[in-house]
Amino acid sequence: MPLSPPLPDTMVLPAPAKLNRLLHITGRRPDGYHELQTLFQFLDIGDTLTLRGREDGEIRLAPRLPGVAAEDNLIVRAARLLQAESGCRLGADILLEKRLPLGGGLGGGSSDAATSLLGLDALWGLGLDVERLAGLGLALGADVPVFVHGDAAWAEGVGERLTPVELDTPWFVVLHPGVTVSTPAVFKAPQLTRHTPPITMARALQGGAASWRNDCEPTVRALYPEVAHALDWLASRAPTMLTGTGACVFARLDSEAQADRLLAEVPGGWQAFKARGLNRSPLHAALGR
């Protein structure tokens, strides 16, 4: 019987950003959570996690994010949850290279948590299946399962009921206007649209990107003038939408050259970058899943 290859002691893994190409709010549940319909797509840019195994069971994350205690960071919470679920006594040193803005609607924290779950599962040789890892991810946040599964997806419920989809893969310019949007504040706002009639995935895809919208956008515009200004500036140049509850806004371009030209026009003081849409997470490609 052939020997299994030795487990790695260090892994460097991507934690990709996501965009909500469409976001409808179809209702509000008795527990206060909102029912959603959304289209998730990954970007070829994101954070990076370097994972190194430890024998003593300690989980150590560096650097710490401003205003976030280490034990409250989703990366650490994901690692602790995986230890508890599996009974694993190993630990890890985790180095986070943070590129995605906090509170930007790009799923950075959720993606970091998913990379922690999948990467540590591989580093520790646990071999848990993706459904089990996605279930752990849901306990950490509604967006974590899509990053665990790794496919662009039509999502319903609070975002956890996923159906893989193939979307167009244009270039995007993503712009952050320098403010942090409070997701709880957006979902608590009385003016938020909460009763968009549900549609089928087939109807959403048939309508195409020109018909897609984000129900949070009018509320975020009203609460955050900086986001409204960024939306107006970008929309004067290309089809534009808010992602998640913001603060990031994105424009869809047909070519990298168009993205480069638009990026060169972005005023100083705004953080902006170009990225390509992806229907398969680069994390899964890196792990060979």
Structural topology:
Blueprint: E1 10-28, E2 34-54, E3 59-62, H1 74-86, E4 91-97, H2 108-123, H3 130-140, H4 144-149, E5 153-157, E6 161-164, E7 171-176, H5 183-188, H6 201-207, H7 217-223, H8 225-235, E8 240-242, E9 249-253, H9 256-265, E10 271-278, H10 282-287
Parallel strand pairs: 3-4
Antiparallel strand pairs: 1-2, 2-4, 2-5, 2-10, 5-6, 7-9, 7-10, 8-9
Helix pairs in contact: 1-2, 1-3, 2-3, 7-8
What can you see in these coordinates?
This protein has 289 residues and is an alpha+beta fold. The chain has two domains: 10-165, 2-Layer Sandwich (Ribosomal Protein S5, domain 2); 171-278, 2-Layer Sandwich (Alpha-Beta Plaits), CATH 3.30.70. It has helices at residues 74-86, 108-123, 130-140, 144-149, 183-188, 201-207, 217-223, 225-235, 256-265, 282-287, and strands at 10-28, 34-54, 59-62, 91-97, 153-157, 161-164, 171-176, 240-242, 249-253, 271-278. Strands 1, 2, 3, 4, 5, 6, 7, 8, 9 and 10 form a ten-stranded mixed beta sheet that branches. A hairpin with a 6-residue loop joins strand 8 and strand 9 (249-253). Helix 1 (74-86) packs parallel to helix 2, helix 2 (108-123) crosses helix 3 and helix 7 (217-223) crosses helix 8 (225-235). It is globular and about 55 Å long.
